[in-house]
From TrEMBL:
Matches recorded under Pfam families: Sigma70_r2 (PF04542), Sigma70_r3 (PF04539), Sigma70_r4 (PF04545)
SUPFAM superfamilies referenced in this protein's UniProt entry, alphabetically: Sigma2 domain of RNA polymerase sigma factors, Sigma3 and sigma4 domains of RNA polymerase sigma factors
PANTHER family: RNA POLYMERASE SIGMA FACTOR RPO, RNA POLYMERASE SIGMA FACTOR SIGF, CHLOROPLASTIC
Gene3D superfamilies cross-referenced by the UniProt entry: 1.20.120.1810, Winged helix-like DNA-binding domain superfamily/Winged helix DNA-binding domain
Domain of life: Eukaryota
GO biological-process terms attached to the record: cellular response to light stimulus; DNA-templated transcription initiation
Protein name from the UniProt record: RNA polymerase sigma-70 domain-containing protein
Organism: Lotus japonicus (Lotus corniculatus var. japonicus)
Domain RNA polymerase sigma-70: 99-112, 268-294
Family per similarity comment: Belongs to the sigma-70 factor family.
């Protein structure tokens, strides 16, 4: 749909292009007068004031404004194919083709505003650099979560071209040495470049398009408790402090050491055995008996839902 319009299919001759640019330049001069009048009056000038400022009648001013606007649109549409041509060279670098076309079109419109006939070149030659520069800047700003230096983007472009070259030659999988030689860098620098070119993957992205499973769900760290379990354990431990009076002094001390209630550090069975002069197995038996008492006490207080957290 980008190139369906008939105005995009016809190339302009040098005479047609010169005439359009002349009318566009006249439009810009009229707009400059309007800006000067607005600064002078401190408000938007009326059509009569604007016409008087440029020495034209209102009808002649409106005619020139319409002519300049149509010429600007015609010049832009006639060069849209060049936007497509430039955008195709930057496919696969982080932006969709539609985004590349949009950025390239903005560069084309900017070139219309900046072009001066005194430059001594055709408009297409001037617009080409604006289109390419706008697309490159968009890639630099928006294609990656982590921005890369512009010289790295230049090397990445050379890397892509090198891969295309070897593919045309029949070498589907060129070695790093071949790619480095083609680009003009060392193998070590090529490896750094390949590492920097990796695109970060969102942990919230779905693994399969037809399911809702995310990467975060399948790469979860099992050593870390989920928030609901952590909160439940904290609540259980807070109640456990109030329930420890049901245990005898030794059992109470073992539970406090085992779950880090005293100093926040959980002790192993061996460490607790050293404190009491008991074997590891005997400490385990005492811990098990104390936990059974706490579970019964939790049930009697209506907190049996937390009993399974006492492990």
């Amino acid at each position: 749909m980008f190139l369906w319009g008939p105005e995009t299919k016809k190339l302009l001759t040098f005479e047609e292009e010169s005439q359009l640019i002349s009318q566009i330049q006249n439009l810009f001069r009229l707009e400059e007068v309007k800006i000067r009048l607005q600064s002078q009056f401190g408000r938007e000038p009326t059509m009569a004031e604007w016409a008087d400022g440029v020495g034209l009648s209102c009808y002649a001013l409106q005619t020139q404004l319409r002519s300049g606007t149509r010429s600007k649109e015609k010049l832009i549409h006639a060069n849209l194919r060049m936007v497509v041509h430039v955008a195709k060279n930057y496919l696969g670098r982080g932006l969709s083709f539609q985004d590349l076309l949009q950025e390239g079109s903005m560069g084309l419109m900017k070139s219309v505003e900046k072009f001066k006939p005194q430059a001594g070149c055709r408009f297409a030659s001037y617009a080409y650099w604006w289109i390419r520069q706008t697309i490159r800047r968009a890639l630099f700003l928006h294609s990656r979560t982590i921005r890369l230096p512009e010289n790295v983007y230049t090397l990445l472009g050379k890397l892509i071209e090198a891969k295309k070259f070897y593919n045309r030659e029949g070498n589907v999988h060129p070695t790093k040495e071949e790619l480095a030689r083609k680009i003009g860098v060392t193998v070590d620098k090529l490896e750094i470049l390949l590492s920097a070119a990796r695109i970060p993957l969102s942990m919230q992205q779905t693994v399969w398009t037809d399911q809702d499973t995310t990467y975060q769900e399948i790469t979860a760290d099992t050593a870390i408790e989920t928030p609901d379990v952590y909160v439940a354990k904290q609540l259980m431990r807070r109640h456990a402090r109030n329930l420890l009076h049901t245990l005898n002094p030794r059992e109470r001390r073992i539970i406090r050491l085992r779950f880090g209630i005293e100093d926040g550090y959980e002790k192993s069975l061996s460490e607790i055995g050293t404190v009491f002069g008991l074997s590891k197995e005997r400490v385990r038996q005492l811990e098990s008996r104390a936990l059974d008492k706490l579970k019964q006490c939790l049930a009697s207080h209506g907190l049996d839902a937390y009993a399974n957290l006492l492990v």
